[in-house]
Amino acid sequence: MDRIDFRSDTVSWPTPAMREAMAQAKVGDDVYGEDPTVRELEALAAEMTGKEAALFVASGTMGNLVGILAHAGRGDEAIVGADAHTYLYEAGGMATLGGIFPHVLPTDETGRMDVTAVETAVSPDDAHFPRTRLILVENSYGSKGGYPLPPDYFASIRTVADRHGLAVHMDGARLFNAAVAQNIPAADITQHVDSVTFCLSKGLCAPVGSVLCGSQRFIDRAHRMRKVVGGGMRQAGILASAGLVALHEMVERLADDHQRAQALAQGLAQIPGIIVQPDSVKTNMVFFSMGDEIGMTAEDVAAALQQQANVWVGPNSLKGFRAVTHYWIGDREVEIFLTALREILAEA
Ligand code: TLP
Q1: Residue 105 needs a FRET pair 20 to 30 A away by CA distance; which of 134, 154, 226, 271 works?
Q2: pTM score over 0.90
Q3: Are residues 46 and 129 part of one domain?
Q4: d(CA 1, CA 271)
Q5: Each residue of 227-263: pLDDT tens digit?
Q6: Are residues 61 and 87 in the same domain?
Q7: Ligand 1: which of 59, 85, 200 to mutate, most ligand atoms within 8 Å of CB?
Q8: Which atom of ligand 1 is nearest to the CA of 8?
Q9: Residues 240 and 317 placed together within one structural domain of the fold
């Protein structure tokens, strides 16, 4: 890459093996269902998540949206965490396009909704209320430092869903980070949900794309919804080929990103004025902030890092940042970041 970019794992460029696979990819018209590489990717994604079928989509947002639209519709209600990506950062798609009402619940410091509160939130069959249809969960949980939630949490959500005939959809944008961090197969997590979207283009480094997985009947409905939002792609095998490299070669190595995030957090903890909790770093995200004694804003510091060391990091509040590790962040890049930050803060 042409910069040291900690703003997100979404910024990661495709690997050389991906570019090679893309150049050689077999293609067809996927709207006719004839792209062999897309089919291969969908079959592998379904297998890895323990589902019957899968659908290649342009982004995590599109996967969540068409998944939600395949589960619920106008006048229905989805129970969702107050800081879930599907609620906060997807332009209100479920309400805008689906007429689906989000029923928002607080989450704890790991991203869990209280399971009793979830059950209480299910509306009774009464004309005053929207019909509760869906529970939305997320793993790893982005707004809570990328926390990797364990299967038993989803098992308890499943029990509530089954009692009330609800569907459960998981935003698993970083599903494989959550699985690798717990040293378990992704399917151990996804067995408790009806559908899951995971992203190929974050820590897995593919240039574009996510996959929505679920039962065949569900994927048939989602396929129609993908058409509705204009997401049918033609010779998409070019993109899917990079996704295949992502699933074959890039999953296990996510453990390296988690180790580097831990090393980064420990390095940050040594810098005077920085507030960080290395214990809370479980996957590839480090949230940290600056104490009041530092007379610069996060924006100022981010600008100085860019200018002095070509290090890009994302401010996420007046004094706070999020730094995310990925394939293009090695030990050297972590060192460059720590050295530059130490120098900038020493002068602040
Ligand atoms: N998240 C992006 C930003 O939107 C915040 C990032 O840099 O982390 N679910 C989760 C948990 C996500 O973090 C994201 C992207 C998505 C869904 C949406 O994926 P895309 O960007 O592919 O639509």
Answers
A1: 226
A2: yes
A3: yes
A4: 27
A5: 999 999 999 999 999 999 999 999 999 999 999 999 9
A6: yes
A7: 85
A8: 7
A9: no
